[in-house]
């Protein structure tokens, strides 16, 4: 009787299992397994075979634990080419990605399966194609309050202590900007939804996209420092050129000797 009851319950659970809960041989499981294989080949040497973190023979950490970092962190690091890292410096630079998007999705799914963490944001979270001027202006205020200390007010990046730097945001996609705020890569702080609301993040992205699309009527941005850099350019190069021309003219004019 007990065996029959267990079989009945098992069959009923199989029939009533929600569609979102994929079985062991479902597509989601296949993606996780594909990510696990990719991780073992390309990431385990630094982060450990099970993403628990790795050390060398001297006890020096070669890669931090990835348990709990979430799919968004993996998508950001791998899609920007920062991972896999070619060498360990003060900061891992951006470079062309090694994996295609399907492989990146598999790696993210595997790491996400290890422990809960920030998920890859939906497209509508960072879509600013219909942002209004008011939203862009509010994003500028939020950007100047939270981001300019490192990325400077024009989003062109800046130097930080110990050989680190805040990268320029001019070539960054809205998706990666949102993921960076969610996960806090390298020395960047985490701007969770309790720190910056999703609509605040979207406003900041709208402002950054406006900066990326901003034209330079003069031809050279000059760091977008306004009258300071423009005036410096005028004095150093403009007046310097006039002085050089005056000296050249003076050297070419023949001297008239006075009669003795």
UniProtKB/TrEMBL annotation:
Its EC number is 7.1.1.8. Residues 30-115, 134-212 form the Cytochrome c domain. Heme c 1 binds at residues 43, 46-47. Coiled coil: none annotated. The chain crosses the membrane at residues 232-251. The keyword Protein biosynthesis does not apply. SUPFAM superfamilies: Cytochrome c. It is a multi-pass membrane protein. The keyword Ligase does not apply. Heme c 2 binds at residues 147, 150-151. GO terms for cellular component: plasma membrane. InterPro entries: bc1_cytC-su (IPR009152), Cyt_c-like_dom (IPR009056), Cyt_c-like_dom_sf (IPR036909), Cytochrome_c_Oxidase_Subunit (IPR050597). Keywords: Cell membrane, Electron transport, Heme, Iron, Membrane, Metal-binding, Repeat, Respiratory chain, Translocase, Transmembrane, Transmembrane helix, Transport. It comes from the Bacteria. Binds 2 heme c groups covalently per subunit. It is found in: Cell membrane. It holds the Pfam family Cytochrom_C. It catalyses: a quinol + 2 Fe(III)-[cytochrome c](out) = a quinone + 2 Fe(II)-[cytochrome c](out) + 2 H(+)(out). One of its GO terms (molecular function) is iron ion binding. The cytochrome bc1 complex is composed of a cytochrome b (QcrB), the Rieske iron-sulfur protein (QcrA) and a diheme cytochrome c (QcrC) subunit. This is Cytochrome bc1 complex cytochrome c subunit. It comes from Kribbella jejuensis.
